[in-house]
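Hi,

I'm pasting everything inline rather than attaching a file, because the server keeps stripping attachments. The sequence lines come first, and each chain or strand is labelled.
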Amino acid sequence: MLIKVKNPADVTENDVTDAQLFAQRRSFIRASGQIALGTALGTLFTPSIVDARGQPLKAKKNTRFNTSETLSSYQDVTSYNNFYEFGTAKEDPAINARHFKAQPWTVKVDGAVNKPGNYAFEDIINLNQLEERIYRFRCVEAWSMVVPWVGVSLASFINQFQPSSKAKYVEFTTLYDPKRMPGQNRAVLNWPYVEGLRMDEAMHPLSMMVVGLYGEVLPNQNGAPLRLMVPWKYGFKNIKSIVRIRFSEHQPKNTWQIAGPKEYGFYANVNPQVDHPRWSQKRERRLGEFLKRETLMFNGYADEVASLYQGMDLRKNF
Amino acid sequence: MRNIVYWKLLLFALSLLPAVALVWMALQNQLGANPVEKLIHETGEWGLRFLLLTLAITPLRKKFSWNVLLKFRRMLGLFAFFYAFTHFAIYLSLEHFFDWQEILKDIAKRPYVTVGFVGIVILTVLAITSFNGIRRRLGKRWVVLHRSVYVAASCAVFHYLWLVKADILEPVIYAVIWLVLLAVRRQAKPTQQQSTLQARSQQV
Ligand code: HEM
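And the predicted assembly:
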């Protein structure tokens, strides 16, 4: 063979940094794709990425917004979630996303932006500048968790594309590939999944573009390789496996709003006073806890984000 | 079918199996990240399954003249009640911690909870009146009363249809089974009439 690739187990602490290893592995897999034996090699070496326990990532701890609440277990975070592209039951994504290959990955950037184009994952995510933040996550279904996410601030991520003054909203799209995402074979939702943010929401320091959790590469079932994390909104806003980012003047229609306009809005801010038509949003069940806890306004981030919605009727703009 | 008692015991054991499995999983911490949700979903589904199974007895008996099936109907019906009531009890306790104000609001405000509640009220009445003594005392009225099991099943089917977020495949499967059972029942009536008509015309 032309290239000798070490097993992750062979790598010692002072050998290379984790982030470098991660990048090397990426480029190795890309290179191998270009030679005839690409597929065979791919299957030989990708398991380390496909594994439930991903590659380690180097990340600085950014404690500015951290919650001191107990972390939800890695097991719970990676085995119980909604990702309809891999099935509609909570256990489905962990099972059906096992063999999903999240690399190589390309993101198309277009619309009201000065630097549109098709970007490779490693060209838009600097693995040496990752940070870890511990956020509360509140699903619209009234369960919640606390997760140490790894990623970059969404503002810095977006700024590299230089959105123009016409950019009032940013729209994200999930990969559409029913062969790789078997849940898309059924028209449960209007595929591909689309989400959007107002520009000021996207540029808020709390918003993140996530590539990992618990110090590791994002597991497939949690939206590898690239997902949103906007912690004051319901979970479904945090679109996963993003392949397209479009900047526009008009408010995009997000997938759940199309599915149920009376039940899911564009803003979807966590709000204990505005019930979902079919269940109360007053309380939530934290994974791993027996008793329910009170849901907090803006999921506990009111001090940071309430000003974004001053003067808006949050009952109408649910 | 002399040893009907053994068959009944076997059916009893089989019917209890899902409950035993759930308790065992709970003790082993095998119910996943959200055990209460898991319990509500599993008990609800088993309630619905037993309800439909109970309704299937009469058409099967007629179709294949398996009169012996009738001997199992009450047990299946009581298991439907058992699972549905456990489901309801979990909703009251682990889901709402007996916050009655919240519970009443939920029942009044949300159609899927309202129909579920109507369903469990009916099943409770039917379970209480299922014993021989009461049955004898109610006479003909018992038959009319227990026909409302069809209403309870309708409630359960709509309960499920109305509660899912987007993926209606499973509740639709149950709804189709329910419709088939209703259709079979409607079919059964005209044929009865026909046969009496035939019998009459032959007499003339
Ligand atoms: C005839 C009696 C009933 C039957 C057969 C029944 C059946 C079901 C079924 C099949 C499900 C869906 C399970 C799944 O998603 O896998 C369900 C869910 C549920 N039921 Fe019932 N149910 C009954 C009565 C009730 C009552 C009386 C209540 C409360 C007042 C109730 C509250 C709920 C709740 C809260 C859920 C979960 C909803 C969710 O997760 O979004 N049910 N039930």
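Residues 190-204 of chain B have pLDDT under 50 and may be disordered.

If the labels don't parse on your end, tell me and I'll reformat.
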